[in-house]
Amino acid sequence: MDKKGTPKTFAAKRTFSLRRDASVGAGIRTIESVFGLPEGSVRLQLPSGRRARTDKKIGALLSDFGC
What we know:
2 helices, 0% strand, mainly alpha
């Protein structure tokens, strides 16, 4: 029997990725637009719980978390 022909199904209907050189502000806008959320409903924060600055890069934010 041929095992080809059955496509994989994924639980997530929408996928996206943020570039490491993008700013946090651009990431927030991307998340809001992809998931259809109202403006101001997404908040990216530092490990300390403080809000991340919008001009900070995603790569720097990830390195704060050790990723």
